[in-house]
């Protein structure tokens, strides 16, 4: 896997060189030919062997760690997986894991720790669903908690855990404890799937006790996380607050009784959420909404409210209005990998913002030149069966123009 990654990285530099030297009149023919003629020999003679050597060295290092401290890697993965997901580095160890899998028929780098963490996040979220008296929170937590147990953790992480930080810490502790057991017991994964209860067959292999260790890992993760969340971590949100956040949030004036309007935070072309090239957004896992392809590099507040969530990479922000509407705005697809490059903002969690206020500035040409799609999902993350979301945007929107309205369940979604 590493040789492929290194070859693609090399090709990105060759492509820039070919772009500069290719005559414009025949660029469509000369440019790809140059890329192929330069990259192919270098990949076969230099990059390929170097990548294989690097892959073997890293795999050997991971194997040495596993022999002398078998609990360390699963414990770290079980504890830190939520932060790896947030920063887009959850699969950073995949090349090593796939190398192990191809050589030994199993891997212990990703699978055991991710199993512990995913189940812990699901258990924490379901515990919130069982304990809360807030019907909106219960509905969100029950559905996202179930999917987290099966291995899809983004709805639970972004929808619940990031808003209840003590619950997130409980999930990290539970995942870490289960990861220690997974490492000490020698748990391995025999197939490359997203770890969760639905993927337990991937832990069935030559060692008949391996699946037993996987089940015990899940049990430890659930029991520790559920106990910490139930008795220590979770403080309920009153029904009348109609929110999923522990922080009191300010208000925005509704358009009429029972309705809250969201105005466009960007200038650009409106795109259906189903057309976004990311299954988490297009599949509606985080909620309903739409997407905008921005034409100006400034994100403005779509209503007056409070910053609920803001990542250091400045590519995404979560806002809440005083009427309880919670909005996630995610600038671009996979732009977390830029680590804040080409983005700038002074926002921090808890800041109060006014409608139309500039929140984030970003360099559209630089981001697109880096190969990222800037389509920006705008999603209501706390929708429920009692409230309908009505999209009101035109095909082209400007700052402050109507985007969507959340109202009582009289409107059709």
From TrEMBL:
It is a multi-pass membrane protein. SUPFAM superfamilies: Duplicated hybrid motif. Residues 278-382 form the PTS EIIA type-1 domain. Gene3D superfamilies: Glucose Permease (Domain IIA). The chain crosses the membrane at residues 34-59, 71-93, 113-130, 167-191, 211-233. It comes from the Bacteria. GO terms for cellular component: plasma membrane. Its main location: membrane. The keyword Transmembrane applies. GO terms for biological process: phosphoenolpyruvate-dependent sugar phosphotransferase system; trehalose transport. It is found in: Cell membrane. InterPro entries: Dup_hybrid_motif (IPR011055), PTS_EIIA_1_perm (IPR001127), PTS_EIIC (IPR003352), PTS_EIIC_1 (IPR013013), PTS_Sugar-Specific_Components (IPR050558). Residues 1-250 form the PTS EIIC type-1 domain. It holds the Pfam family PTS_EIIA_1. Keywords: Cell membrane, Membrane, Phosphotransferase system, Sugar transport, Transferase, Transmembrane, Transmembrane helix, Transport. GO terms for molecular function: protein-N(PI)-phosphohistidine-sugar phosphotransferase activity; protein-phosphocysteine-trehalose phosphotransferase system transporter activity. NCBIfam families: PTBA. This is PTS beta-glucoside transporter subunit EIIBCA.
């Amino acid at each position: 896997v590493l040789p492929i990654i290194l070859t693609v990285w090399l090709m990105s530099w060759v492509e820039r060189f070919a772009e500069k030297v290719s005559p414009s009149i025949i660029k469509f023919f000369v440019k790809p030919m140059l890329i192929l003629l330069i990259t192919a020999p270098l990949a076969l003679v230099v990059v390929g062997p170097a990548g294989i050597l690097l892959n073997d060295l890293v795999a050997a290092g991971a194997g040495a760690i596993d022999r002398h401290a078998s609990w360390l890697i699963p414990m770290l993965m079980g504890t830190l997986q939520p932060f790896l997901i947030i920063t887009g580095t959850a699969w950073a160890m995949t090349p090593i894991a796939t190398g192990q899998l191809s050589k030994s028929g199993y891997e212990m780098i990703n699978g055991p720790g991710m199993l512990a963490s995913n189940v812990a996040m699901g258990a924490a979220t379901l515990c919130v669903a069982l304990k809360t008296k807030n019907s909106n929170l219960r509905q969100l937590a029950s559905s996202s908690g179930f999917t987290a147990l099966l291995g899809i953790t983004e709805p639970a992480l972004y929808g619940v855990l990031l808003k209840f930080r003590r619950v997130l810490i409980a999930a990290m502790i539970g995942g870490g404890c289960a990861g220690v057991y997974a490492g000490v017991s020698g748990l391995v994964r025999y197939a490359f799937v997203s770890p969760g209860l639905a993927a337990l067959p991937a832990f069935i292999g030559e060692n008949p006790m391996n699946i037993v260790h996987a089940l015990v890992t899940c049990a430890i993760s659930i029991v520790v996380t559920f106990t910490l969340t139930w008795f220590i971590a979770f403080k309920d949100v009153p029904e009348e607050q109609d929110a999923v956040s522990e922080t009191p949030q300010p208000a925005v004036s509704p358009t009429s009784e029972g309705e809250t309007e969201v105005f466009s935070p960007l200038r650009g072309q409106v795109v259906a959420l189903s057309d976004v090239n990311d299954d988490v957004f297009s599949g509606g896992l985080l909620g309903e909404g739409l997407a905008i392809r921005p034409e100006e590099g400034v994100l403005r507040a779509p209503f007056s409210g409070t910053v609920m969530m803001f990542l250091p990479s400045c590519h995404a922000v979560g806002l809440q209005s005083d009427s309880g509407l919670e909005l996630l705005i995610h600038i671009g697809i996979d732009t977390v990998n830029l680590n804040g490059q080409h983005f700038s903002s002074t926002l921090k969690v808890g800041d109060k913002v006014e409608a139309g206020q500039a929140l984030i500035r970003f360099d559209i040409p630089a981001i697109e030149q880096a190969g990222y799609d800037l389509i920006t999902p705008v999603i209501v993350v706390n929708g429920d069966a009692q409230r309908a979301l009505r999209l009101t945007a035109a095909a082209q929107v400007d700052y402050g123009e109507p985007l969507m309205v959340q109202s009582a369940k009289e409107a059709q979604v």
